[in-house]
Amino acid sequence: MNLIKKLKNSDEITATRIYDVFQSAYKIEAQLIGTDNFPPLSRDVNHVRSSKTDFYGYFYDDCLAAVIEIEMNDKNLEINSLTVDPCFFRKGIADKLIAYVLTSIAHDKAIVETAVVNEPAIKLYQKHGFVEFKRWTPSHGIEKLALSV
Question: What's the pTM value of the predicted model, to 2 decimals?
C-alpha cells in the first residue's frame, strides 16, 4: 500500500528515517551537481528532529521512500527539500509529493530553490507550473535558481 502522510519529525525514530532518506538522496544530488561541499548533507538527525518545518513522507509498502519538507510563511508555501530514496527513483513519487502539497495545503504562492544544474528537478517543478524568478550564487558556490507558482 502506498500513501502520503505527515511525519512527526520530533520523534527520534522518525527523524532518523527522514535523515536516512536525505543522506541517500543528497549524495546522488551532490554527484549530479558535481560538488563535495553540498550543504544539505551537513544536516544531522538532531537538526531534523528540532526543525519547525513540516515533513510529509511517501510510503511504498511500509518503507519511507521519499520526503518533502515544507514551511508556510504568511500564505507562501516554501518547499525546503524534496528527496527520494535512490531505491525508489523513477516511480513518480516526487511528482506525487509535489502534487499533494500543492493541492492539500492552502497557499497563495509556492516557492522552491534548486541548483541551476539540477535539470531533473527543474523539469519536475516546471511540470507543476513553476517558473523561474531568480538566480544567484550563495557563498558555498553552487549556482541556484528559485521558481514559483
Answer: 0.93
